[in-house]
Amino acid sequence: KAAVIDGKAIAQVIKDEIKTEVSSLIADGKRAPHLSVLLxxxxxxxxxxxxxxxLAAQYTGISCDILRIPENVSEGEVLKEIEALNRLPxxxxxxxxxxxxxxxxxxxxxxxxxxxxxxxxxxVLNVGRFCVNQEAFIPATPSGVxxxxxxxxxxTLGKNAVVCxxxxxxxxxxxxxxxxxxxxxxxxxxxxxTICHRNTPPDQLRHFIKSADILVTATGIPxxxxxxxxxxxxxxxxxxxxRILDKNGKARLVGDVDFADVSKKASYITPVPGxxxxxxxxxxxxxxxAAYKNELDYGPWNKSVLPSR
Length: 309
Ligand code: NAD
What we know:
6-stranded parallel β-sheet, 3-stranded parallel β-sheet, 11 helices, 11 strands, 16% strand, binds nicotinamide-adenine-dinucleotide
């Protein structure tokens, strides 16, 4: 029977590490790092996600403000807000909660965030740098998945990894990481990686999943993976989150994997909720501390906007 990965406990360890570091910065007379979150409109799930990020920041000693922007504003007005935050030296991280209203281009808005403050890793410069193995902010959910594998001391070198889902912010970066060369000292990467997506025929999906030593699912399709599809000992990271109504009409969150049965065959498995979700939140905060410390060198891209940093 699989060890159930406790995402809440992993997130707590990460947040405590950040808290210790922030406390010592403040003890040294330095200011606290700061995260600004832009929330456009009233999407109920986004409101909850943003609140969780603000609470996590607060716990670690990182200050956080949430800028609520009405649904009906123009893209230009959102860009102006981002521009203002880009120029404020005391704002270290900027996060634009997605999805945005349909009248805005997510690409344009994400690209407006200064790369060195882009703690969500959605700016095209971060995406590109990451693809060519340069230091970059990595989106929180993929970082969360990698962090879980790292903290379990799983070495992916030479293993078969299968990622179901290829979205730009979730499935694809996870697959890129798993297949890339391992960085010095890292145990993640160098897996033979297969990406499955909505056009992967069901028999092929089954065939590939059966080969997986590490299976990451990020589709939002409950019950996509059943016990008969996986091999014994597989490590299962279930990123999917879907709200369903149970037999009694009560809402609950489920992942993509049939947890009860797959956990009888897997070596490790993440539950939903309480798996990847809490670690994702902690990674946004970790990126904010990295932005504060200017850990990543963006050279002219940041300096052109922020000469004083
Ligand atoms: P998305 O809708 O953008 O992408 C879904 C992906 O699943 C697509 O690439 C699609 O090709 C693939 N897919 C669809 N049917 C498939 C099938 N039959 N077999 C294999 N692949 C199939 O969604 P997303 O933003 O990538 O999110 C995916 C899931 O992860 C959602 O449930 C979302 O709620 C969840 N999510 C969780 C976190 C977290 O922190 N845990 C963060 C972001 C997203």
